[in-house]
Design brief:
acetylation (chains A, B, C, D); two-stranded antiparallel sheet; globular; Glutaminase (chains A, B, C, D); 5-stranded antiparallel beta sheet; alpha+beta; hydrolase (chains A, B, C, D); Beta-lactamase; homotetramer; 47% helix; Beta-lactam/transpept-like (chains A, B, C, D)
């Protein structure tokens, strides 16, 4: 299939949507990006890449980082992890806190903030003050790029404005489901959200999941086949907050969005994809990114269904 | 692959689980089945079938009927249907009614009771008093069997004990999202739940979804490719109530369970499956049926992820 | 104190509010009343009465009937009643159904619809098909008027449009907290809501509660002192749905409102009051009626606090 | 009436209840009190006092402090305060956080933790770092005792274990309903909860509320008549968390409990009462204290209803 031609078609078709959506503005550092960007990368297992827009331009990965920390926690804890975080879709945002109260501090899944904070905590139990370094080293390895780092302004902005996340972590701690100091965990969490990557790097970084646990570039197995499949499953059912069902319905691929405007997706055993466009829809996912992926599976027939 | 051998292996491995779970007892007519049954059917597009147990023994399909009515409603209304029923996972059972209140009578998806009642109502708007006949005729066609009918005792039992469903339909009606008389809609709904089918018939009846809308037996297109894929997607994200995420995570196939003990599943573009075992887990899905499907994808590697 | 002069002052002061609020329109029969009415009656234990407006004009008492059925049920069951209905304020309307689910079909208190349906059911268990007659006879006695009856059009309208109440009763039945046939209970409930009374009759009918259980007109004890006080307490904490706290805060008297536009209130050991004005505030209580009672306690200093 | 004799009767009758209930143990400093204490003080406006037990023994006042901070905030802001905190009962504990989400960070009333944190914040806006001194000075004045102070161990314990309160304040801050630094507000809040007082001091300190705003000892007006009555109303409808309705129903007096085991109550225009017994019922109120007050109003007929 001529993927490059398809990406270029998509780029044309989404132009009409630039008037819609709204860039995340809950922290000043995110609000200042150019709203009318569209970048998309596709990467096959043999290393062939396709792209439109500036595929080396970096943006804040935000919740896409949850895929990496979940992989690491699942690798280290296996099914013991499920006692501290579930794997069910969370319903709607309104439920986030009541769900925690109702279910005694066990977050519904690792791809909502509450759940990602718990998976970060499980890593802090092992790697202590080196946890962020450990996470970043893993990302550098799977993205095949040693230069990746986090943005200090965004990190500081998150710390100063992240009252809802402070509320969540204190709530979970009150149920004894945070085992380390709140400051250590939340600092690590905010740093991982502030990591800057390009669509090219993110597409590369998802190869190990698409390829059932093995990075095709190095042939290194990072997680077991079964855990790679389960990560994919979780991306499908829980990857887009309360629009997860809609994404599965319209796009039909495992994916994970970030409020910074990026979305990663995989076609199992075939390829990985990353799209970036910072304006968000009402559910906090990239509006044009979601549409672009819908066009991609329509044009290629690559939905998993 | 030797599917028959795999089914026989599964049959052996699940024996140890017969002590767990509990047959549905909310209506007397369901409570009286033999609890220790296990039946499983697999059907390929060329008509080859595999099975263990009495694959012609019939049971109440219950919520599996929601797949057929959704297909019919989606076929007739297209995206207009989404204004009356969503396609997001519903979170947990606790939320069912509060969700209806919070979202003004729009059920979260067509595979929870509230949503299926609305899809039945959309069919009643068209087919009036012939709606149940219309639904049953469709099922006879896709199952390739003219003898299928519903069980009058179970139907009567549902009517007499279905207080929660009466609560739901009245609630939705109060938001003007039921357009026909409550009695007509609920009678049709309870009849479709009381239809009796065997694993062999149900496996056959799911072929058109697995085969992207075309019944491979007759080559008749019943719904568009896109609608078949969307039905599959919905089965994956919403097919097992508040254990949908867990089913996707462990089994990795689109499926739909019924409280009667049946589960259907599909491998897109490959095959359809039906398993029956009446004891249920805490979420109301067949306990052994779920385990059998997990073993099936482990042994065959046929997960969609 | 010159109560007549105070009522006339209040009548003047509330004129400015006639532009606000909205008559109940959930059933056609209620929507057709003249919106700009204001009637108020005060009655002392010696029979002296004061009034402004047409104190003999009748209106639908709606939820004010809940005071009578609660009194009757409390009289007959005593503290056993608390196992079927609580006496805590219900928070907000949003919670009505989720609260029932969360608390297994035990309504929070007898002054919300769910709770009043249960108290009616407890009376049906004793009085069977004569329950409505039994309730009406009690009201005739405490109001000292044999001509009181219900409005058949309003009753029919309730039956045809009361989907939320049908949802509630079915929900409660599913938890086995309705012991009689749904039709019998709901018909009785809708009839009691459709009773027509004037402010003069309602003020008289509340005398036994204000006078600690004894009708001062006849010296007949209808309930014990303790049960009369408890009814008053419930009127204070739960009498105005999710504006109960606000009513207690601003008016400072036990009261009960009905969606028909009436509010009854009592000054313990002193007098009873009824006000009528059909336009409602956002919480479904008479807007001008609430204000008039606030003015009344400000001017007389008769708050219980 | 012979109040001393009544108190002694009550003391005898409650002995049988010492086996029930459980001392608060969410912080170690509270868990170590002697569980089987019972102390009760009654104070009339002329200064006459009655008591059983060691009426000068001090305990942690905890949520009773909310009455003082609410009085101060109401005095300073008047009805503007209602834009930041409501005056409706909160329903049940389960709803605490969901209610905040649903109502955009406006706590239901000032006697739940969320609401008391907001009233403290309104005081911090005026008194800055002197806020705790300002609150303590007010308490010293109304209790007529300059030696009152807070317990540093309890304060430290609250700070170290108060994760739920940290969750609440961050949640409210995310809705911009906390105007000052979280640390300043929460430190002040925890200090006020850690104040130590005796039943004798607390009974004295409630005189100004019972006496419609004037301290009868000094004849100083502290708040207006209307604000004193409104504080009483709030104590009745919201003073005992999700057992507020039950307390109003059984005791029939405005009151406020603290998790330390104290309960204050007033008889409007007559007297103030304080009871202490540290074992709590399921709703977190003093089990024996509640029973003692129920006996008190039964024996004296002093319920407000």
């Amino acid at each position: 299939m001529n993927y490059q031609a398809i990406l270029e078609e998509i780029e044309k078709e989404i132009q009409a949507l630039f008037s819609e959506g709204k860039v995340a503005d809950y922290i000043p550092a995110l609000a200042k990006v150019d709203p009318n960007q569209f970048i998309m990368s596709v990467r096959l297992f043999d290393g062939t890449s396709f792209g439109v827009g500036d595929v080396n331009s970096k943006f804040s990965i935000q919740s896409i980082s949850k895929v990496f920390t979940f992989t690491l926690a699942l690798h280290q804890y296996g099914r013991d992890l499920y006692q501290r975080v579930g794997h069910e879709p969370s319903g709607d945002p309104f439920n986030s806190l009541v769900q925690l109260e109702y279910e005694n501090g066990i977050p519904r899944n690792p791809f909502i903030n509450a759940g990602a904070i718990v998976t970060t905590d499980t890593l802090v139990s092992i790697h202590k003050k080196y946890t962020f370094k450990f996470i970043l080293d893993f990302i550098k390895k799977v993205a095949n790029d040693d230069t990746i780092t986090y943005d200090k302004d965004i990190y500081k902005s998150e710390l100063e404005n992240g009252f809802k996340n402070f509320a969540l972590i204190n709530m979970i701690k009150s149920y004894n489901n945070i085992h380390n100091k709140i400051d250590t965990v939340i600092n690590t969490y905010f740093k991982q959200c502030s990591i800057m990557m390009s669509t090219s790097q993110l597409a590369q970084s998802m190869q190990y999941i698409a390829n059932h646990g093995v990075n095709p570039l190095t042939n290194e197995r990072l997680i077991s086949i079964s855990k790679a499949k389960r990560t994919s499953s979780l991306m499908l059912t829980c990857g887009h907050y309360d629009a997860s069902g809609d994404f599965a319905y319209k796009v039909g691929l495992p994916g994970k969005s970030g409020v910074g405007g990026g979305i990663v997706a995989i076609v199992p055993q075939k390829m990985s994809i990353c799209v970036y466009s910072p304006k968000l829809n009402a559910q906090g996912n990239s509006l044009i990114g979601t549409k672009a992926l819908e066009l991609f599976t329509s044009k290629t027939g690559l939905s998993i269904f």
